[in-house]
Design brief:
The protein is α+β, with helices and mostly antiparallel strands. Strands 1, 2, 3, 4, 7, 8, 9 and 14 form an eight-stranded antiparallel beta sheet that branches. It is globular, with a radius of gyration of 23 Å. 34% of the residues lie in helices and 29% in strands.
Length: 331
Amino acid sequence: MATFKYYNLQVLPLDGKEENLIGSDGYKKIFSSYSEVVNKAFRERKLPTISHDLMNDMQFSFKKIEIKDQYAQGKLIKFDHIDRLVEVYTNDELYENKSEQSIASSKRVEFDFVFDFKKHILAVEAKQGLPSTKVLIESILSLLASTVTDEYASHYIKIIELTDASSLEKVLDEADYYKKVSVEVTFSNSDKLERGLLSLIDENSRENNIHTIKAEQKPPKDRSSKAISMVLMPLIILSTKLGNSDITYMKDNKEITYHMREYPVKKRVGRDSKMTDDDYYSQIFTSITNAEFTARTAEETNKKLLDEYKIEENYGSSSFNKLLKQIKSIF
């Protein structure tokens, strides 16, 4: 079975207006356009011309992209590009590539991928050789940037790795006090729960051209907080899919630091001998729904948060009331 990691790929409007969100048709358009670039480069044996440079003379690129009704599928490739091999002791030439129509590589690794147009989530095979999260995100941003600009000149692209929301449960269960809480969230064209949380934070964020919110809870020196503030609570719920959080807390007089990015969502996808490539990619596509669910704060965690902050119908905040009703409707 293969293991996959998941990345929330967002193409967002520079002016922040919700009506300028590109939707599933827009993501399909971007990948359809870019597939022409990739597939042409592959046919003409010119992948190095569209690849992203990595360290140690390695390159990273999409190798093949196929467009289906609901998703794009294909392969990513990491490779080096060598023209000569020389014997170390004798300096004799062992190999020379004289053909302009071929690429010689001593370190070649391919990774299956699927991109869901509606959820705008990218699944990438996480086997040995896959670049680190930071490098992978930088690479994909670089590869897609020109196509995004060509198709949507007033938009930009941002990628965030999905985090396993259950990792938050341990923090909530263990923490006696909180020393420091930092969170960052980037807005997205999101589902009902996420839209409700976003409206709680700031209903006019898009209109005010606010794309990213960073917040920090830090009590005075040598002090701790008994709870995470209500201001940060919805941001932390969102950050498993739309951002990142760091929480330093005390447990039995011991200081512990939780880094959300250390708990990426991972799913296993199996393939038997009877499966066609399309069947296999369909399985990967299905895993994206499961990954998205894992990235959302689990039901029990939400209930703990609601109980902890005693958010009730008579709390006195219409935004909180609206949020509570939306969460209850989902649960």
